[in-house]
Design a protein that fits this description.
Elements (H helix, E strand, L loop, with lengths): L4 E4 L2 E5 L5 E5 L20 E4 L3 H13 L2 H18 L6 H18 L9 H7 L1 H18 L5 H16 L3 H22 L8 H18 L10 H9 L1 H18 L5 H19 L1
Antiparallel strand pairs: 1-2, 2-3, 3-4
Helix pairs in contact: 1-3, 2-3, 2-5, 3-6, 4-7, 5-6, 6-7, 7-8, 7-10, 8-11, 9-11, 10-11
Length: 279
Amino acid sequence: MNIEKILNNNVVTTIGEDGIEKVVMGRGIAFKKKIGEEIEEDKIEKVFIIHNPHTSMRLQSLLNEIPIEYAEVSEEIIKHASEVIDKKLHEQIYLSLTDHIAFALRRAAEGLIMKNEMLWEIKRIYKKEFSIGMWAIRLIEEKLGVTLDENEAGFIALHIVNASLGQEMPDTMSITKLINDILNIVKYYFKIELDGESLSYFRFVTHLKFFAQRMFNRKQEINNDNSLYDVIRDKYQEPYLCVRKIKDYIQKNYDYELTEEEMVYLMLHIQRLISRKSE
């Protein structure tokens, strides 16, 4: 690999055989080097392959501005998150999370604490991602000597959710609000406390994540076979009435009409929730 651009002593770019620009990071990788010279393989610590040219340019700009340690910590968090949730994260997270960490550290140095208004919802809905966020702030303290609080763990969790769903952050916030509102409709309709540790709760929240993603992308799965809907509606009358409330809420607030198939899945999940609760 030959150097295409030198961003600083620790970051260069190169062009692969496929014509895609790659960002190469390593301590002293560009020290006393010139454009066109070969990159020393033993100094390469990370290669970022960002297919979106706009994102790649922004990442290059960011890596040119921040200490290499910030990018290393971000990379370690992303790797850990991918292993924990067992899913490849969208490449945008290399930019968004690294940028957020740099901003959080700058705020911490100035003594500024940003309150995460959705922290309670994040803890409730994204338990696994929040645990990764807590792991991340411990790593930041260990590697960089800066103590961040659980507000930042919540923000990191949202970046992970965002990358796992392939959504932009504002959409992720909208998805989180929608899920929380649906959970509250179920909670108050049945007058129960939902067990956030139960498998049925986890399955329901997982279903709601992908339902919300489809809803905001206006991608409905339409099945013209109504036989299952009729059976489930008649068998689980209380879950049906609860889903009617959810349907009315979504129609009023998001101008989105639930299909009968979507209602069936919601009824089944809610029935499982309340049956586990009664047991």
